[in-house]
Amino acid sequence: MAKKKSFWTTVPGILTGIASVIAALTALYLALNPLHKDTIPSGAQPAATPLAATKAPSPSGWPLIAEETFTKEGWGWTIGSFPEEGRSSRFDLRVVDGKYRWDIEYKYIGSQHRTLISPYGSAVNFKVAVDVQFTDFTHPMTANLVFGSTGNEQYEFMVSLNRYFALFIYDVKNKQYTTLIDATPITVKFEPDAWNRMSVVVDEQLIRCYLNSEVLGEYRHVGFTGGKVGLGVGTDQGGSVVIDFDNFEFRRKP
Question: Which of 15-24, 99-108, 184-193 has the highest mean pLDDT?
Fold first, then answer.
């Protein structure tokens, strides 16, 4: 009886130890598994604290610069096939059923992304928005809303299929990232295989990122001097993706 009592006395400790090991292994898996969180290189600037989801007002009253529903070709956006050596074996841009379709296949595993600047002019205080839908993919991908593009650098608001978002500056020449808002879980309504609306509003150097009309995060960057807007698609694992964009909107503050 003494031996039995001793054994059962140690069972809770054994179970507690096993649970601790499982929890540690689970945490390590989530940290290392690329399917859990997209890797966004850390930059020199501290990450911003995302706002709680709110129904923040959108500047719909600002004058409309461009509104594109992609019902036909010839409006100024790029159409055609543009593979690039070392990055993608397929990069096709076309209009399909009133949608601006990007069909991409990457050759190699690793952080890669393709962006395209719109045919519209520059702006300092503005709103840019677009509907996005991930139609087909082999690995988790990101949809990127590009703004503040000067040719040397551009800002990008990223939404991942893994339900994360981020805000960063991309150095086009040196292919380096400066993180403004680190990869952060999306806490608002987001269905990756459905249509979702991404928006960025910049007003006096305050950058607000929206998803489906709700604020995900904001960052005031005193170095922001404006630029052009555009679209992008990214990946950390290679593979292929078909992504559709629609209802592009560009407004400039008076």
Answer: 184-193
